[in-house]
Amino acid sequence: MEEAKGSEMGSSIFTKDGSVDLKGRPVLRSKRGGWTACYFIVVYEVFERMAYYGISSNLVIYLTKKLHQGTVASSNNVTYWTGTAFLSSIVGAYIADAHLGRFRTFSIFSVVYFLGMCLLTAAVSFRSLKPPSCNIQDIADAGSCKPASKLQLGIFFGALYIIALGTGGTKPNISTIGADQFDEFDPKERADKISFFNWWMFSIYLGTLFANIMLVYVQDNIGWTLGYGIPTVGLGISLVIFYAGTSFYRHKLPQGSPFTKMARVLVAAMRKCRVNLPKDSLKLYELDSDEYLKQKRFKIPSTNSMRFLNKAAVIVGTSRNPWKLCPVTHIEETKQMLRLIPVLIAMFIPSTMTAQVNTLFIKQGTTLNRHIGPHFQIPPASLASFTTISMLITIFLYDRFFVRIMRAWTKNPRGITLLQRIGVGLVFDATVMIVASLIEKRRLTVARENPSNGGRVPLTIFILLPQFVLMGVSEAFLVVGKIDFFYHQAPEGMKSLGTAYSLVTYGVGSFLSSFLLSLVANITQRNGRKGWILNNLNASHLDYYYGLLSILSFCNFFFFLIVCRFYVYKTELFETLTGEEKEELQEIQNRG
To answer: What is its main location (predicted)?
Structure first.
């Protein structure tokens, strides 16, 4: 008995979720992972997001004032770049899950990221890499200045897209590395993991806040060399901090290509479309438990959802060709990823809103009175800091108060379900568009009452504050809920791909926003009409455009409700805990 007890105690000091060190050895719970490891990762993210948003927040202003691009061209170039950065996360996720693992994939692409930042800083620093200066008082004047040459544009955008590639390899893996530091089989660590994504997003927006306030001011008032040099140095510091914590990290082994695995299931099921399923699911093909233990993985029992795919596990003859016969666990993993696709589609419209309105809100700010006192002017991009502050406050209140109150009522460890959290965010998202339309209507009215004011509207820039604050509240529910949802609902061996799903929504949204902006601009200018979106914002009708976006948002919300009605949550590892362990977890949450 003592020997058995000793064996039980010995196993309890190791993690139970398949975590290993970089050499593939089991991990001692007390030596690696938990919040100790996450501190390094979270601090890295603060600096890295400061670097990324130090570039992206004011990029539309640089394209307009330094590269002399118009409203539609500059807005589209920003969204093309951000779209590429987020879509390339699929590449980073695939390499991590299939081949190199998250840590090694992150390490390679972080070097690419840093080199891109260095090249971009050089591109804004040397005169030969920029067109001649031109005194632009208003965005409408950009077309009268000498445009950048093909070489200048090539170097600048080449640097941007190197950064996009680096972001694609680091972004889907760093948050997953952070979440991997918590073992769901340990009640205390599971309780910590539930809060992790709240504080993860808190760290992201802390870095964003610094970028929107300090870096934007430096870029607008001191210079772009220093304004881009600081985030480049910040990224270098973030990498030093991340690697300083290497000895504390837990890792998950790569488990083969998720795309190949899913393709095999679909092909095998199609090949056996006329084969009858056995009444007993235990007769379906499955690997031995030892095979999964060797790979630090877990078996998943067969379910009745998407029953057609279960035919991939029907044993016909003696062939074990993986394109004709798939184990039940692979089939269930495929089902879990396929279930995410309707939710993924429902996230395209809000991501389109985010990509679009950020640049347009900033451009609206350039037409307003930005003075505070006789000498200080607020950089338009700094208004985004109010979105960040609003989100930080909302996340804090959500994690510390809202979850506790709702948990007592719903008995859900998260307070409300992941999809409910996303749904609340979608309602706020649509509300932002309505408020933005009303505020823009007011701005245009004053602009037309004062046509001889040099393009400046005699209204304070703070009239835009409500829409920025509401965006922060929306993102606290929507953005955090989205990344949490896709991570937790993805199979254990496809977590990076699941996280990439949440990033892909921004990529698709960015390209959709460019398409939508160009489409509306072209349609509304046909037959000699003035159009809704012009270089001169005071002659535009952004209020109509925001109204159109609000209609799209509400239509998308109703589509999301339909998706929620049919969505089935996967069984989490938590469900495999004993009753005693679940009670211990509940006690920890009640104390938390």
So the answer is: membrane
Residues 493 and 69: beta-carbon distance below 8 Å? no
How far apart CA 191 and CA 370 sit, in angstroms, is 45
Q: What angle do CA 568, 571, 572 make, to 5 degrees?
A: 125
Model confidence pLDDT, tens digit, residues 238-291: 899 999 999 899 888 887 788 888 999 999 999 998 888 888 888 888 888 777
Q: Which amino acid, 168?
A: G
Query: Who contacts 44 (Cβ-Cβ below 8 Å, separation ≥6)?
Result: 174, 238, 239, 241, 242
DSSP-derived pairing of the beta strands 376-377 and 371-372: antiparallel
Q: What SS3 class is residue 175?
A: helix
Give dist(CA 519, CA 549) in Å, integer.
13
The pLDDT, as a whole number, for residue 303 is: 85
Q: How far apart are CA 400 and CA 5, in angstroms?
A: 38
- Please write the tens of the pLDDT for every residue from 422-478: 999 999 999 999 998 999 899 888 888 887 666 678 888 888 889 889 988 998 899
Asked whether 446 and 459 are in contact (CB, 8 A), the reply is yes
Would you list the DSSP string of 104-134?
HHHHHHHHHHHHHHHHHHHHHH-GGGSPPP-
Give Cα separations from 33 to 38, 100, 118, 246, 254 (angstroms). Answer: 7, 20, 32, 10, 18
Which residue stretches of 180-223 are H helix? 187-210, 216-221
- CA 17 vs. chain centroid, Å, equals 25
Residue 165's pLDDT band (cuts 50, 70, 90): very high
pLDDT in tens, 480-505: 889 889 988 888 778 888 888 888 88
Place of tokens 């808190």: 202
Residue 508, beta-bridge partner list: none
How sure is the predictor about 137, in pLDDT bands with cuts at 50, 70 and 90? Answer: low
